[in-house]
Structures are given as C-alpha cells and as structure tokens.
Design goal:
Elements lengths: L15 H8 L4 H9 L7 H11 L4 H14 L15 H4 L2 H18 L4 E2 H7 L7 H11 L2 E2 L6 H6 L8 E4 L27 H13 L4 E4 L10 H10 L3 E6 L5 H6 L7 E5 L2 H4 L3 H17 L3 E7 L5 H13 L4 E6 L20 H16 L3 E4 L10 H9 L11 H4 L4 E2 L4 E3 L8 E3 L6 H16 L11 H4 L6 H11 L7
Parallel strand pairs: 1-2, 3-4, 3-10, 4-5, 5-6, 6-7, 7-8, 8-9
Antiparallel strand pairs: 10-11, 11-12
Helix pairs in contact: 1-2, 2-4, 3-4, 3-6, 6-8, 10-11, 15-16
C-alpha cells in the first residue's frame, strides 16, 4: 500500500469507509496514517476511531490518534483541576455534545479491552490530560482498571504522583527597590514585618528539611532586598535544596557576587517595562546582572507582566533581551487586581470577548514566534474570553497552559510563606492560614487549604459559567478571577 496516497490531516473530503480496513491493518504505520486522515473528518465514527487509536498498543499509533484529537479539540491538552459532573444544560451546548461523544467513544473502547494498569492508562492518555479523568471514571465504571493507586483514582489522574519535587514559595520580605504599578504585592509590606527574622529563617529551613522540601521559590517583594539572603542561600546549599530566585534583577554588585549555580538553581528575571524603558542607568544594571548570571552558569528565564497599556512596542524590547541572553521561554501574565486594590490591572472578565485581550495575545504569540521563543502563561486567564479561532491558534502554539496549579500536589503546590511565617495557599490568594511551623507537615498544610479551594472553585465566577463545559470539567482558567472577587470581599477584612 502507498502510504503517501492516504489523505492528509487537513483533507476533510475523506469518508471513514475506505479507511476502515487501514485502521485494522497489523502494521502500526498504516494505522497511524489512517488515523491522521481523520483529524478533520466530521461525524461520530471518526471520533470513535480516534479514541480507539489512543488505546492502541503501539505508541506510534497512539501519538497519531492523540494528535488528531488535539487538532479537533485543542483544549484537550489542558490539565484540569478537580472535575465536577456536567449538568444536562451544558451537555446541550456544542462543546458539551462533543464532550459527550468523546465519553461514549471512551466507554465503547473500554468494553473491547481487557484490564489495564492505572499507570498504563495514564501513559496512553498522557498527550490528552483533559480526558484522563474521563478515561479513569469510565474505566472504573466498566471494571477495566486494575492496580489502582491509594486514594481517589480520578484525583490521581489529575495530579499524578510527583513526590520527587516538593516545593514552597518563600517571601522573606515584601520590601522592594521598585514600585511597579501593576504589582500584585504592591503595598503588602505594611501588613508584615520588614524581613523574616534570622531565627525564624533557621526554623523554617529545619521544617523544610524535615518535610523533604527540595525546591524553594523565592518571591516577595524583591527577595534580593532580604537582609539575611546570604544565610538563606547557605542554609539551602547545605541542605542540597534548589533555589529559584524571582527577581527584578536590579540588585547590587554585592548581591550579584553571591549568586552562583551552587546556590541558585534558576534565576527568573522579571522585566519591568516602566523602569527599564525610562532609565538608562537601570537598564545598564539589569543587563550587567544578567550577563554576570549567564557567565556564572545560572539558568535564566524571562517573566513579563502585561497591564492595560501593554503593546508590542512595550514587550518587544523584553523579547530582544531574552533572545540576546539565549532565553528561549517567555513567561507572561496579565496583571490582576490585588487585595489592597492598589495596583493597575487588566479587566479580564469571563465571556467579555474583549478584542483588546484577543489582539494582544495573538500579537504576543506572533512576536514570540518571530523571536524563536516559546510563550509560557504564568497566571490563568478565562478561556471563554477568546473566540474559538484565537483559542485554537494559541493552544496549538503552546501559548496557553493548564488551569490553576494551586490545587496540585494535594493542594500544597503553591503554598506561600510570609515574613511573619503566616501562610497563603497561593501568592495570588490572600486567604490567611496558620504559621508554617504550626503545620506538622506539608501534606497537613495542603489539607488545611483544600476545603477553602474546593469551596472557591465550586462557585461559578460568572452566571455564564453555569453553562460552560470548561468550568465543570476543571479546564476553566479563570480561577484568578474568582480569587480576585474573594480578595475584594473577604481577605481585606481578615488580614492583620
């Protein structure tokens, strides 16, 4: 058979009939070619064939089927938060009907399979994380899963075991050498001591060691302003703890001399367009510090915050800097309203269909592509604010990522520690929690915030979300909008 003669992914004029025999061919390359031909093929038959292909024993075939399904519904690449049952009203929507067809196809495929190990199922569906909970749910219903993990299998499908990476976010100070108009922590320093004390720092490091925390993300404020930074880095080095430093990179030469790969696992440089594009002196120090870090062998990442004034003329210089220093990932986020309501932020409302948001994202993606860089979304945004064409384009380019990660690792992934040792479940969510040292373990800290998160995420942020498949299946990326409402109505009255 001439594989070249098979229709391509973009050919929509193919009927499933002639391809049926190729889908049953014993040769993986033939089955793969037939599945690729179904990428744009309408009808339930194509979906059933593609889903069956994801269960194929040959990895080549599974990858072809996954690619075709992602082409049809690009949001399948997103990893969900905890899922919820979909109401009948949502099932009548276009996406709801497509999701229901996928569910029926998965159920039919399960009935033709023998039992599979849980880990094997997740591996086969690793390219389509949005459907992993559905596969597990239906596998359990069909009695086709064996060797299940301890705990809730559906939850484990959302949050696979990642015990090798245990982390916290430590904000040792909320002081800063800048005052960025869009900063989420703007004016937070008035709520806390200027710095985490040296005694508390040592107690924190003992607690982290006892809890096998091996990754420490330094935030703030500007962490290089922390008076005991040398002691912090030495304590982390002694415990073989990796440190990610998030910084505006305008620190002194003294600080620059203390940073090396033995103490800094990664430097995330935040490009502040306000200062760097208005001060030659600040730009010179910024570039000099980046050069020193690169020369020392410290891995670099770029971070950029878009506010309501951001245009290509503002972010292109940041991309030029990243390109100059060999940084191939451009992390970005839209500024969101902080709990003190003291910063500039972008109004990202669900279902607002804002053309300015769409145009900015598409222009950002085009500029990143021109610079040979990969975009990385650092903070969630509402998928429903984007029309399907823009959503497809941005997902296929990898410019959007999965829903809020604060719920991962048993709700402990974004655990944040303040200078007074009080905790937040996430840097963006100022829900006051106990002091870190009052928790017996990292798992206990996650369990403390679990009920809060589940309650928060069960409340649709907008009436339109009540009809949205993304919301109910945990793919919604507007959790930061929910937390903004929470910050406004609750936290400001409960903070010290």
């Amino acid at each position: 058979m001439n594989l070249e003669a098979l229709p391509t992914l973009g050919d929509t004029a193919v009927s499933l009939g002639p391809l049926a025999e190729f889908l049953l061919d014993p040769r993986p390359q033939v089955r793969s070619a037939a599945l690729r031909a179904l990428g744009n093929q309408p009808g339930e038959e194509a979906v059933f064939a593609l889903v069956r292909g994801v269960f194929d024993e040959a990895r080549e075939v599974r990858m072809a089927a996954s690619a075709a399904l992602k082409h049809r519904d690009p949001w399948l690449i997103l990893r969900p938060t905890p899922v919820r049952p979909v109401p009948d009203l949502v099932l009548r929507s276009e996406r709801g009907r497509r999701w229901q067809t996928l569910r029926l196809a998965i159920s039919a495929a399960w009935r033709d399979l023998g039992p599979l190990r849980f880990s094997e199922v997740l591996d086969r569906w690793s390219e389509l994380p949005a459907l992993q909970p559905d596969v597990v749910e239906l596998g359990l219903a069909e009695g086709r899963l064996r060797e299940l993990p301890i705990g809730d299998p559906v939850e484990r499908a959302i949050d696979p075991d990642d015990s090798a990476r245990r982390q916290i976010i430590l904000c040792p100070t909320y002081r800063c050498n800048l005052s960025c108009s869009y900063c989420y922590a703007k004016e937070w320093g008035r709520h806390y001591p200027e710095d985490l004390s040296l005694d508390d720092l040592r107690r924190v490091m003992v607690w982290l060691g006892d809890n096998r925390v091996n990754l420490l993300i330094l935030g703030g404020g500007e962490p290089t302003e922390y008076r005991h930074l040398p002691e912090l880095l030495e304590e982390a080095r002694r415990r073989e703890m990796r440190v990610i430093l998030t910084t505006n990179t305008l620190y002194s030469r003294t600080v620059a001399g203390r940073l090396d790969p033995s103490s800094i696992f990664q430097l995330v440089t935040h490009y502040d367009q306000d200062r760097l594009q208005s001060s030659a002196q600040a730009e010179s120090r910024y570039l000099d510090n980046l050069e020193r870090a690169r020369a020392a062998g410290i891995p670099l990442q770029m971070r950029f915050t878009l506010d309501d004034r951001s245009t290509p003329e503002v972010w292109r210089p940041a991309m030029d800097v990243a390109h100059r220093f060999g940084i191939d990932t451009f992390g970005f986020a839209f500024s969101f309203e902080n709990s003190d309501r003291s910063n500039r932020f972008v109004h990202l409302s669900p279902v607002d269909g804002a053309s300015t948001l769409v145009n900015a994202l598409l222009a950002l993606a085009e500029d990143a592509e021109a610079h040979g860089m990969q975009l990385y979304l650092c903070k969630p945004l509402p998928l429903c604010a984007l029309p399907d064409s823009a959503l497809r384009s941005l997902l296929e380019r990898g410019a959007l990522r999965s829903a809020c990660t604060a719920t991962l690792r048993a709700f402990s992934k974004n655990l944040t520690v303040n200078p007074d040792l009080s905790t937040f479940p996430c840097t963006a969510v100022r829900e006051p929690g106990p002091r870190l040292l009052d928790f017996a373990s990292l798992d206990e800290a996650g369990a403390h915030f679990r009920a809060f998160f589940e309650s928060l995420l069960d409340q649709p942020p907008d009436s339109a979300c009540e009809d949205c498949l993304f919301f109910f299946r945990g793919l919604c990326q507007c959790e930061c909008l929910v937390t903004r409402t929470h910050n406004r109505t609750h936290v400001t009255s409960s903070l010290p």
